[in-house]
Amino acid sequence: MTHKLPIVRKIFSKRKTVLALFIVIIIATPVLVIILNGNNTSEKTLRITPAKFDVYVEANGEIKAESSLEVFPPDEFYDQELSFYEMKIIEMVPEGTLVKPGDYVATLDVSEIDRKLKDLRTTINNQSQTLSMAIIDSSLTLSNERSSIQSLKDKLTEDSILLLNSAFESEASQRRAAIKTNQTLKQLQNKINYYQKRIGSEKRRIDYYSRSLADSKRLEAKMMAFSGKCRLVSPGTGIIVYHRRWNGEKLKAGNSIDRFNYPKSVAYLPDLSRLISEFNVSEIDVPKLKTGQTVTLTIDAIPDRTFDGTISYLSNTGQSNQVNDYNNYMVQVKVNAPDSTIKPAMTSKNRILIQQFTNVLSIPLSAMHSEAGHKYVFVKSGWGVEMHEIETSVQNNTDIIVTNGLKNNDLILLTKPINPEGLKRVMLN
Hints:
This protein is α+β, with helices and mostly antiparallel strands. Helix content is 34%, strand content 33%. It has helices spanning 5-37, 111-165, 171-227, and strands at residues 45-47, 51-65, 68-71, 86-92, 98-99, 104-108, 231-233, 238-239, 241-242, 256-258, 267-270, 275-282, 294-299, 302-314, 319-320, 327-335, 347-360, 362-364, 369-371, 374-381, 384-395, 399-404, 411-413, 424-426. The model is unreliable at 1-12 and 28-41 (pLDDT under 50).
């Protein structure tokens, strides 16, 4: 038995050695990972070589027709005298419907017209009664005035006879008769003058009531005509396209049109032979553009094709942008030779080439990092990673030209390493 003990000890000794090595590996692995993490090259990399570099302005826009026929509400909707400010759309044909002149397009809600008509007819009834009463009252008043005038005329005749008969009486009697006759004459003249004025006053009063009634009846006729025109029809041949509202949503059944705000029509029929792409650019990019510049367009709905266009309009006034402090300027691009695949309201991507470089080194903007006013890029070197200071020049939306600090065939990291603090730094002289 004793000779077997050394063998058992050797076996246990080997097992302890293996176990110890296993424990060391388990402990050392995280440490090695931590040590090597700063030089982690498992991130995505990019090998840079001289190539062409394009500087461009790019913006998303919307395809629109350069000209179109609008499906407007009736003219009465814009009549200030009728005081309509908005109207609800009850029904509309689907967008894209092909229509001919006179075809049905939409129906407007007439409930507000009916309510106003009801109120107006009550007013007309009251005005008619008021006018009738005024005519009767005026007739009675003027009749009484005429009776008073006639009474004074009769009295003047009597006083005149008494004045003639007083010629055979005393002078005092003659003076009394003359005074009485003159007083009656004066009363008659005043009454006649008052009567003439009263005729004018009564005429003006009746004319006022008559005009008010006539105006109300004229408004009634306008509203009845308006009510009969709320079934909107197409002004020409084409496809129906919905307008976009202020919030970017399409105007559709259930929405209202506003007399003062865009859109002022229910829908439109675009001229598909003359299309434009409309978009906004920031005040930083607008000085780079000019009318006549070539534009390359892609349409989201037609991803496998590109189209050519030229800038036909640049806005001179900017609109405030709620996203940042820059103003936006509207740009319109005329689409050259559009075909039937392009439709209004499609989303377009517009790229305008501003400048072009050849045989330059460039890197993605995401691969460039800044620290203490210096620009850096992480470059794979051998088994590790170095932090190279770089100088740059022109950039576009995605990349930037590197003029110093990198060379042909350098392999750069597209993302920042987890622990870059201990990396070797290669600074520019």
